[in-house]
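fwd from M.: "can u put these together and see what the complex looks like"

so here's what she sent:
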Amino acid sequence: MATLIAKCSMEMDCPKEVVVWNYYDHEHVVGTHYKYYSEFRILAERDDWCLVERFYKLPIVNLRASSLGFMYMESPNLIRSIQHGKLGLVLDQEIGLEDLGQDRCRVTCTYRMELPDFARVFQPLFERVITRWFRDTWVEDAPMRVRRWKVWKLGFRDFRGLDYVNQTTAAPSGAGAYRPHPVRLPVPKTPESPPGSGYKRPFEKSTEVGY
Amino acid sequence: MDRAQQVWEALAPSSDSCRESEQILSKKGSLAVVTEPERAPGIGFQRIADVSELEPYGQFSKWVDDHDILVFRQDGEIKALSNICPHFGGPVGYHQMKEGVFTCLWHNYRFEASTGRCLTNEHLCLRSYKIKVEDGGIWVQLVENPGT
């Protein structure tokens, strides 16, 4: 057997807990990543594990694909995701999280795929596709994580927003100061999207004004 | 009550709080839109942008102090809503408004531009900001109740 490997690492201006929130916030996949993902289904989830089905388009090879994925936390610093593709291929992904102070962390993703020995020749293509995928989704996730961290420090509460904005009062003193971001899994869903339901992107193309 | 409903009950604001906002909105008339170029901006208003910044999309968003404000033109009027989705904090105005509706980038929560009402979840709504347009500038009142 041959093991194809690709490793990507980037630093992020938020604590690792925000990155964990981002990975477990399944609903954002067809929002933030609407250009790549067409559909996402949560088949089951509890605490830090989930079984999900994704439908997406791979870069470079431009293939539409889907996979069944199981994700869990091996430790507070390591998320593991095992994805089983329709062609029988299994992609094993490790997401390492390392704090670099209060407001910064490093994310290191290691992807492995076991294939018959002859497929060793696909290592360069595997590395290219995975690296591109990592980079493209990182570019979309990074502003999301940074913004989430910003509003969280301002006092944001899920399903409420910022009290001083809603109540038209001045921001309280201390708004914007460090505030620990909890890891509460699974990430809460609204009644309109309970576990087991699916999410479809509302559109494929849009005029993006930006953040 | 299933688990999702329990989580929701624990997290969601009471429907009264949204209703209160709606009452405030309705008192202000059609949102907090004030386009009175003949009057000088009042106390508490600050200039946040030039009107020309509405081009080319008819909208823009901007952080001013600790507020993220979505300014847009609808039916010839310039209006302002909070750009912070009350769901998880996403950018409501990332996509260009379509048919009077903003769709938040992160989770596709939809908001009616004319009222700020959330069409995805009836418990949620966006704050509207009082604005004035003068001398080619857009002025916004961030704080309406400074004493509270």
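replying to her w this: Strands of chain B lie at 45-50, 59-64, 67-74, 77-82, 101-103, 110-112, 130-134, 137-141.
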